[in-house]
Amino acid sequence: QNEEKWDFVLVSDIHEMGSEKEIKRKKFLDELSKKGFTIKKIEDTKLFYGVRAPQHIFWKYQCLLTNPNSRQQNSTAPQDIPVTTRIRVVHFILQNTVTSDLEKLHDLMKKKVFEAAFPLHKKEEIREILKKKWARWRVLFKEQPIEEIRCYFGEKVALYFAWLGWYTYLLIFAALAGLATVAAGATVFSSSQVSKEICDANNTIMCPLCDQNCSFWVLSDTCTYAKVTHMIDNEATVVFAMFMAIWATVFLELWKRERATVATNWDLYGWDEEEEELALQLINNSQHEPRLYQHSYFRSTIVLILALLMIMVLIGIAHALVIYRAVAMALFTQSEVNLLSKHADIIAVMTGAVLHYITIVIMTKVRSHTACLAGFLQKPRTFSQRENNFTVKIFLFQFFTNFSSLIYIAFFLGRINGHPGHYVRIAGHWRLEECHPSGCITDLFIQMAVIMLLKQTISNIMEYLIPLISHQLRKKQKPPKKRSVMLGEEEEAEDPCKRQWRNNYELNEVNVFSLFNEYLEIVIQYSFTTIFVAAFPLAPLLALINNVIEIHMDAIKMMRLRRRMVPRKAKDIGIWLQVLEAIGTLAVIGNGLVIAITSDFIPVQVYKYMYSPCTRGNHTSMDCSTGYINNSLSVFHIQDFEPHTKVLPEFKGEQIKEYRDYRNADDYTYTVQFWHIFAARLAFLILFEHVALCVKLIAAWYIPDVPQRVKNQILKEKHSNLRNEL
């Protein structure tokens, strides 16, 4: 039975005897034999080499890395070493074995000497448990078997699923709050005074939306749009934004507690990644000298410049999307098709959002190459350092790709487009878009909804289907010649390893960054759920539905569609925690800005308390926002239009039309009320952010990072160890 336990399988094409590749392969396998490895060769359509490490390697590992007090108790018999540790040690030695040509496995794989190297999915009891309790769609709402995941995939993967499960669980509260906000908006908005005024404004005539062949229009045409806007943009949103800022902090604090519990249960507190790496290097080669820490300001500067260039490119893409929307708006409004011209603004926003989604997909493909280049420039010392550098760069890149056009819609749309008679134009030709008279927040809502829905449907389906289809295709390439070979030697039974190794080889390959991509996807989703959540209160609900499916989809991919991952040890989720904390702070700023700048919350409040009928007399029975819409529109004299503007129908004499802004009727400069609102927006922003950040700090202080139980457990262990020594 013991004979057939193989730690790793190397796969290679069948090369001709004496060819360069064959010689290189032989050299590498000889190096392994010198280290005492057992190697078994099986020939199929490919050459399979099973590799088993000698026992003394694991004894050394245990001697170097067990803590001293447990060493005395079992100095004679080595404990059974977990499979995950076996695979990790063997993987390290394989990756760091150097041939006489100074080539490592990595170089040989680049030169196609070996095609693949992977640990096996074996028929173990634990694998069957995972398949039954975790990697199937039937157990969608059951708790994950984290302990079993750890025993099969190692701590790093188990921590990812523990974190994802915890995040999904806490999303339930955020999703309920979001639903409550939308429900409050839906019941309150029908009676909202502002949307009622827009719906009744039958004789308020507005300036045309484009330069050529656009007619004037009546404000009450946009009644439905106004109602939808006030469903999202009301007092409940402010409370919800505040709630989400606190939720983000509480989520991270509770996760730190959860992580501390897990790390103690798995005995990871004393574990040190650097020490483990040094131990493995010494086991592999006792003459090994450690690589020292280095820091080069020159390299860092180059990386910084590259990063800034990349961000510039992304801002350029955001600009291109802005131009697309301005041009599309102009073309749609002049279109012969009635549907297009009537709903030009919404269609321009929708197609813009779809285009943005496409750029996200394309830039995701581009990003990994650029980050690898930056990583190569920085030459980090350990693997985890390399991973951290890579994480920060890729996250920034993805973040800007996802949020550049949202930032434009939230904070610039309709604020930089001039006024009738003096519009800001792209290339002197196309007018920039304007906001809707009931505010810009609906544009942001549509953009976020489209991107989140597309990301969660199309991207997830592709993420599941591509591995599934490629696995089926690999299975189809079964060797036809096997049968004819077998005919001559019918009595020789097929080696049981052969089938198992071939089945493992047919699965999709995994790379070092397979888990990284899963993290990245969820962290970007977390940014959507927190940063502009004031404009899209349904984001947490969408995230919740997505995550429940995502957990099991990842499980099925890992267990059934992909080769086994090399288990890695870790005691937390690494640098992702800092990334999540940064997003939490950005969420406070983002939501504060959305309420202060994008939403109409502040102008309405300023009007209520400074300009409304309520301030003049004691109209207690009256709604204080009565007259707000009329107050927020400015007057424009038609003869001041730019000469090339063609308006239908033609106008005669001096007529007055309206547009949304706070400007004087004679010289179109800003009114005092504009500056009042501007000051109120700033005051609100400063107040909101300070209050939210204070609440975040209080929450972080109130919830200790490490539970008392864990602290006491560590204390008792230290105490008993010292007493034993004494």
UniProtKB/TrEMBL annotation:
Keywords: Cell membrane, Glycoprotein, Membrane, Transmembrane, Transmembrane helix. One of its GO terms (molecular function) is protein dimerization activity. Residues 149-716 form the Anoctamin transmembrane domain. It is found in: Cell membrane; Membrane. Residues 81-146 form the Anoctamin dimerisation domain. The chain crosses the membrane at residues 157-186, 236-255, 301-324, 344-363, 394-413, 523-552, 573-597, 678-703. The keyword ATP-binding does not apply. Pfam families: Anoct_dimer, Anoctamin. Its main location: membrane. It is a multi-pass membrane protein. It comes from the Eukaryota. The keyword Glycoprotein applies. One of its GO terms (cellular component) is plasma membrane. Belongs to the anoctamin family. This is Anoctamin. It comes from Promerops cafer.
